[in-house]
Specification:
alpha+beta; 5 strands; Heat Shock Protein 90; 374 residues
Amino acid sequence: MISKLYPRDQIKSYLIIDVVSIVFLFYIVLSSDSAPSLSGSLILLTAFLASFYIGLWFRDRYLLAAVLAGIATLTLIGMYIGPRILLFGFIFADMLGKSKSKWHIAIGIAAIALMFTIVPLKENDGLASLWSSILLPIMIIQMIFPIIVYIIRKTKNLQGRLDIANQQLEKYVQQEERQRIARDLHDTLGQTLTMIKLKSELAAKWVDKDPRQAKEELKDILATSRIALRQVRELVSEMKFISLASELEHSGKLLHTAGIELEIAEQGKPPLLSSVEETMIALSVREAMTNIVKHSQAKRCSVTLATVGHIYCVNITDDGVGLVEGKLGNGIQSMKERMQALHGTVMVSNSPHGGTTISLKLPLHHHRKGNPAS
């Protein structure tokens, strides 16, 4: 109920102060011998309350009008009772600071100054009473008060926006982190689990024909599953550096297990890559090899590493069934995201002689010769 009579957002900070101030104002006016008649006093106090109430709910030109009306009312009361009534100008000075317009605040401050100029004229020594009494610092404080309130509210609004932005950023980072973990799990564990699957199929074929060979395959499965466990630990902590050479070696074993012959050709001296760049390319190669084993039905695969101008190129070609039209899996998207993070590109196309060609291109213009990035 009270929130309909008084703004909810101000109840905690202002309600008690406003109630106490209004009670004191009513007491001073109604108990003063120099106040106008009872009806006149009630009219002035009603005008004060109306101005105060309107100022509570608005932040636009209605707030300015309410402040000006309230200051005018206090000026009239002050001319009857004396300058002490000007202390209640803090009520409207505070309201004025909540205005959205700097021009409105400037007009209100001018009205406060005018009020402190008019009321002392009623005294015997005129404006001298203003300059020689405590009224001067009170006037200065009331004139500065709206500016202080405006700055505080502006700061709170900016802090609120910053908090919202930080919350949105945190959600975005969490989402990106989930996607990264999902991508890394897919890229890293996918290949290892594919090898375990292939080894298991081989072991099942050999178990009756050649138990000794089946036993060897089971040993490989055990070793590969240990690798998978280590990869999970690494992914849970943080992505480690992955050497492109070691990844190609690992890919050779995977393809050999799947009955695919791998040929690697390196043209020229390899460039000096940062650990992040080499890791991203290695993971992209890993994903490409996993896709070849799973989907290509290929017998041969070739990897060409070359530096063309300021571009480092990794071309992966197989002689399999080629691309299925309209079907690009998560693996291709994962490679694209990794290379885009390095300002590189990924091109996937059908090979002229059958199969698929994946071309990874990384710009090297930011590298200095003989000075590897870290």
